[in-house]
Specification:
The protein has 474 residues and is an all-alpha fold. It folds into two domains: 391 residues, Ammonium transporter fold (Orthogonal Bundle), CATH 1.10.3430; 32 residues, no CATH class. Helices cover 64% and strands 2% of the residues. The radius of gyration is 22 Å and the shape is globular. It starts with a helix and ends with a helix.
């Protein structure tokens, strides 16, 4: 408890020291930007797209929240919802500057835009010449928000909230921001190498999926994993979350055109097509393998297709997106339904199986199917006469995998020195809703007595035995 209080006070002290820096010269705007004209249509489109991407994180909260057991529903939803606030603040104070400010050694942005000083209402020609710089900031900020939220699916039902908060802040600063600069920042080394990532297959999905796998391995399996029944407690909630993610993904991918134009329309079409193809492929594979098609499979499949099309959304055509989606749906099903069981790791909600595998396939597929006929600012892929692009994409994938895995492991080990990472056995049995947040998602009542029913009669105020634990509502 003392360690937690110490970290809170240190955080408040850090924020206090930051205030003068964050607001210093915040009105200063580079003179060159004043000459660029803001296009109202492009600006409205990007701001709407930013709002759609913001909606994706609460949608993810529902998607993940429905897949956990009743006793962990609120804690799972809390993680995604809290990240919206935490990373939004981090992005303004230092995250955006580290990701997009003028380059420092091709590895990370400098401190020029700390606290968004020097970032104003005029466009920045390096990133988007027709929309306010602030519009670009908030659009990219919503990407920074959802990426660590995706990781939470890998450690659902077992990570303590204080450790989660510190991990999220450290991971966003030390993993997401540098790689965002590598791929999208002016001067970033993967951008200079020629890696194509239109909307985040490498930056968002590979980073979150691989990091999620590392967290799952470091924390270990949930108590009872492999022996207890751990079914989703509310599939309608999960489907609603998937629908919101699908809806928001149009802002995610089409919005990355940074203008209301033909490229945005193309990205919109291939996004929907790949998601649809992947949903069909996942359900078909599941139907053949397990004998029944499921709504959870359809929801997972559409997300796998959305993940896979993300890096190539602005570079590939509709027919290519069908192939990308079909492979994503079938491949991610194999990763989730077969590979995970054989290897035995506990990726609770399949963050790695969907985002790590799907993002990797999407990055590789971009090297296969990209065409300059779709986007002259991009490059042709292998199937359009440029084998070198596939090699470049593979280099980007390898760099992202290695960096995400190594840095996530180091961050977890460092946090573990000062804070417990994982709930203990008793806390897991009682559920994180009660033990971490003092709340319950569902207040069931006995219809005869009117008294609350808590996990088949277990009181959250009392410890439980192993025998009682076996009777806990799964």
């Amino acid at each position: 408890m003392k360690k937690v209080r110490l970290s809170v006070w240190l955080g408040l002290l850090f924020m206090t020291l930051w205030i003068p820096v964050a607001f210093a010269d915040e009105a200063a705007v580079p003179a060159a930007a004043e000459a660029l004209a803001v296009d109202p249509g492009d600006t409205a489109f990007v701001l709407l797209s930013a709002a759609l991407v913001m909606l994706m994180t609460p949608g993810l909260a529902l998607f993940y929240g429905g897949m956990v057991r009743t006793k962990n529903a609120l804690s799972t939803i809390m993680q995604s919802f809290f990240i919206v606030g935490l990373i939004s603040v981090q992005w303004v104070l230092w995250g955006y500057s580290l990701a997009f400010a003028p380059d420092t050694g091709h590895l990370i942005g400098g401190f020029d835009w700390l606290g968004l000083r020097g970032v104003g209402q005029s466009p920045n020609a390096d990133y988007a010449a027709t929309i306010p710089h602030m519009a670009f900031v908030i659009f990219q900020g919503m990407f920074a928000v959802i990426t660590p939220a995706l990781i939470t699916g890998s450690f659902a039902e077992r990570m303590k909230f204080p450790a989660f908060v510190v991990f999220t802040l450290a991971w966003a600063t030390l993993v997401y921001d540098p790689v965002a600069h590598w791929v999208w920042g002016v001067g970033g080394w993967l951008r200079e190498l020629g890696v194509l990532d239109f909307a985040g297959g490498t930056v968002v999905h590979i980073l979150s999926g691989v990091s999620g796998l590392v967290v799952a391995l470091v924390l270990g399996k949930r108590k009872g994993y492999g022996s207890d029944v751990m079914l989703p407690h509310h599939l309608p909630m999960t489907v609603l979350g998937a629908a919101l993610l699908w809806f928001g993904w149009f802002g995610f991918n089409a919005g990355s055109a940074l203008g209301a134009n033909g490229l945005a329309a193309s990205a919109f079409v291939v996004t929907n097509t790949a998601a649809s193809a992947a949903a069909v492929a996942w359900v078909s594979a599941e139907w053949y393998h397990r004998g029944k098609p499921t709504i959870l499979g359809a929801a997972s499949g559409c997300i796998a297709g959305l993940v896979a099309i993300t890096p190539g959304a602005g570079f590939v055509g509709p027919l290519s997106s069908v192939i990308i989606g079909l492979v994503a749906g079938g491949g991610c099903y194999l990763a989730v339904g077969i590979l995970k069981a054989k290897l035995g790791y506990d990726d609770s909600l399949d963050a790695f199986g969907v985002h790590g595998i799907g993002g990797t396939w999407g990055a590789v597929a971009t090297g296969l199917f990209a065409s300059k006929d779709i986007n002259p600012a991009g490059a042709d892929g292998l199937f359009f006469g440029n084998a070198g692009q596939l090699a470049t994409q593979l280099a980007g994938v390898a760099a992202s995998w290695i960096f995400a895995a190594a840095m996530t492991f180091l961050i977890l080990k460092a946090i573990g020195l000062i804070l417990p990472l994982r709930a203990n056995a008793e806390q897991e049995v009682r559920g994180l809703d009660i033990t971490e947040h003092g709340e319950r998602g569902y207040a069931y009542q006995d219809f005869l007595t009117g008294s609350p029913i808590l996990h088949r009669g277990l009181s959250p105020e009392k410890p439980v035995s192993a025998t009682q634990a076996s009777l806990t509502n799964s």
